[in-house]
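FORM 12-B: Structure-to-Sequence Request
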């Protein structure tokens, strides 16, 4: 009998040992988990997050899993729903570069922490489960060539369920057969479309919450004997053929145990969509030369095809579409400091000067140059006095080519956790950085 992709991926996951994981992969995992806790803590304070948190509190019995940024503990699936939504509440959660549409923090760390708290798992078990989930999730997105978003799906809401089911399932001690079925069940729990980028609304954040919740549901059901289709990923009506275009199934299992895609994990430095990060970095370099927003006649941003096709929003309707808009994010950078998430507010959205400059930003696809990264961008500013200034950037801080240092990670963590008493925030950060030494993740004071 032919082994399916789900079976191969599940066998890899159940066979992975902490000792097999290279040290740089472990360090990237711990950084992502700490970053996710911070993003959730910040996100929990936002109005749209409070709605989801209230739903989780109201519908769950008391449990062992923390709703991060609050004093509440609920059952793991409800904690995952709330924390997935808060992680993605303000465009601050982690992603991957090159991008395949996966968000490791919201997709893996969120369900992983919830289950680890409930199961009293060790830090090493959580790290191992995260890495296994990351390797599976990235490969599914990579095999899809990130094509699901070209036809209107929101990729993190699709991929997160698969990766999270691996992470949650390992922490629940599922065997290979059960974990394979968890992937099969996960295929019926994927959701999320991109209409929010056209019509607005709060739902973008919900996609990551539902993915994290679905991951725990899929693992829990398969643990109890519930089954899913064996070819949920590569089958005729499986993920790659229904949600994607021109997929490459061979990439699902390529390099398992040898190539560590967890190292593609990228931490954000601005509270906007990833396609705007390199243009914003370039804009800040121009701004550092003394250029102010009121000096600018027009801006041309040459960048990725996706930036132009999905993020060319010159009239954002709300904060969701503003943060999703490359023109708005670039314009904002000339009037505010985008490294401070507090500047992405309705006041900025309604600022006449920022709105006017947003309309003056033209996006165009950059012709790929030798050595370009996938997000390479060139920003050209024409000043009102006729002078032109251009800046080309390949990366932004936080990408694999320039990971955040421990000090930079701590600065971001502290900036996002001001809702917590400083000593407790510091203790959480230290626990995350020493996660492999903890015998019980439940001892981290996350509530």
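FORM 12-B RESPONSE
SEQUENCE OUT:
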């Amino acid at each position: 009998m032919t082994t399916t992709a789900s079976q191969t991926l599940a066998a890899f996951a159940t066979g992975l040992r902490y000792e097999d994981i290279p040290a740089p992969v472990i360090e990237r995992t711990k950084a992502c988990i700490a970053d996710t806790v911070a993003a959730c803590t910040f996100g929990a304070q936002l109005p749209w997050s409070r709605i989801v948190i209230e739903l989780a509190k109201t519908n769950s019995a008391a449990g062992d899993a923390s709703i991060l940024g609050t004093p509440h503990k609920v059952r793991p699936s409800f904690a995952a729903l709330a924390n997935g939504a808060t992680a993605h509440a303000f465009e601050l959660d982690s992603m991957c570069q090159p991008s395949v549409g996966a968000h490791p923090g919201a997709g893996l760390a969120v369900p992983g922490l919830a289950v680890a708290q409930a199961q009293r798992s060790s830090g090493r078990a959580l790290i191992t489960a995260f890495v296994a989930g990351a390797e599976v999730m990235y490969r599914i997105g990579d095999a899809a060539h990130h094509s699901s978003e070209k036809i209107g799906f929101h990729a993190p809401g699709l991929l997160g369920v698969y990766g999270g089911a691996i992470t949650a399932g390992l922490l629940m001690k599922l065997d290979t057969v059960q974990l394979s079925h968890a992937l099969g069940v996960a295929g019926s729990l994927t959701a999320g479309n991109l209409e929010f980028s056209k019509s607005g609304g709060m739902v973008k954040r919900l996609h990551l919450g539902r993915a994290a919740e679905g991951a725990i549901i899929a693992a829990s059901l398969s643990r109890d004997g519930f089954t899913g289709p064996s070819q949920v990923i590569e089958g005729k009506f499986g993920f790659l053929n229904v949600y994607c275009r021109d997929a490459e199934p061979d990439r699902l299992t390529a390099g398992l145990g040898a190539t560590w895609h967890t190292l593609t994990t990228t931490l954000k430095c601005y509270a906007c969509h990833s396609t705007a990060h390199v243009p914003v970095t370039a804009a800040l370099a121009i701004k550092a030369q003394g250029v102010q927003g009121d000096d600018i006649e027009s801006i041309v941003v040459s960048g990725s095809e996706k930036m132009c096709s999905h993020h060319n929003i010159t009239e954002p309707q709300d904060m969701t579409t503003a943060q999703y808009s490359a023109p708005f994010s670039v314009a904002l950078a000339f009037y505010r400091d985008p490294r401070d998430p507090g500047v992405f507010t309705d006041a900025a959205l309604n600022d006449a000067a920022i709105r006017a400059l947003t309309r003056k930003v033209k996006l165009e696809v950059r012709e790929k140059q030798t050595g370009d990264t996938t997000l390479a961008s060139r920003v050209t500013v024409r000043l009102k006095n006729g002078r032109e200034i251009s800046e080309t950037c390949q990366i932004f801080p936080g990408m694999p080519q320039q990971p955040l240092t421990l000090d930079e990670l701590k600065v971001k963590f502290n900036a996002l956790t001001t809702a917590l008493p400083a000593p407790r925030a510091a203790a959480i950060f230290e626990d995350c950085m020493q996660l492999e030494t903890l015998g019980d993740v439940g001892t981290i004071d996350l509530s």
